[in-house]
Write a structure and sequence with these properties.
- The protein has 180 residues and is mainly alpha-helical.
- It contains 8 helices and 2 strands.
- Helix content is 64%, strand content 6%.
- The chain has a two-stranded antiparallel ribbon.
- Strand 1 and strand 2 form a beta hairpin.
- The longest helix has 29 residues.
Length: 180
């Protein structure tokens, strides 16, 4: 049982890495930074939203959104318009170029999913979904359970960058478990 669970964990990590590699290549092929896609998608589905709306939805800091919006406006993917009700608050809109970029990106990422799940039946996909959902529920403590994908990535990056960070499940006296 233990060896099998370790092999499954290894496979899940490997799948995650391979999927990230494919996603990075796909986003480069589409000409967009992968982190910009959720922002572009949100604005496309919520025309006139504010940067604060986007930050709240993606659960990331306002300064991160501000920097991304600036890059995307410069790239012609989105535009800002002064808010009608609040002159200090800009409304965001996707441009025709942004819509085309989003369409191409969705096509590319759909192809990645097709490749990843090739040969699986509908029943197998439903089972896999149930299993992976349970794994996520088992892995996520209360602190992480409701966090968005992007918020989790931000938390992980902060932990990786903080040399004094302690893993939450280890006390000062415990050793980090190793696999021989």
């Amino acid at each position: 049982m233990e060896k099998t669970s370790m092999e499954i964990s290894h496979n899940l990590n490997r799948i995650s890495i391979l999927q990230r590699i494919a996603s990075q290549k796909a986003s480069a092929k589409a000409g967009i930074y992968i982190g910009q896609l959720p922002l572009l998608g949100y604005v496309a589905h919520h025309p006139g939203c504010t940067q604060r709306d986007v930050a709240a939805h993606l659960q990331v800091s306002a300064p991160n959104i501000t920097a991304m919006v600036k890059r995307m406006v410069r790239a012609g993917l989105m535009e800002k318009q002064v808010g009608a009700e609040n002159l200090r608050c800009n409304s965001l809109f996707i441009t025709p170029q942004g819509k085309e970029m989003l369409k191409r990106s969705v096509e590319v990422f759909t192809e990645i999913d097709r490749m990843l799940f090739a040969g699986f039946s509908e029943q197998e996909l439903l089972q896999l979904h149930a299993f992976t959902t349970r794994l996520v529920e088992n892995a996520a403590s209360k602190e992480y359970r409701d966090a968005s994908h992007f918020a989790l990535i931000a938390m992980l990056k902060k932990m990786e960058n903080d040399s004094d960070a302690q893993l939450p499940y280890l006390s000062q006296e415990q050793e980090v478990p190793t696999v021989d």
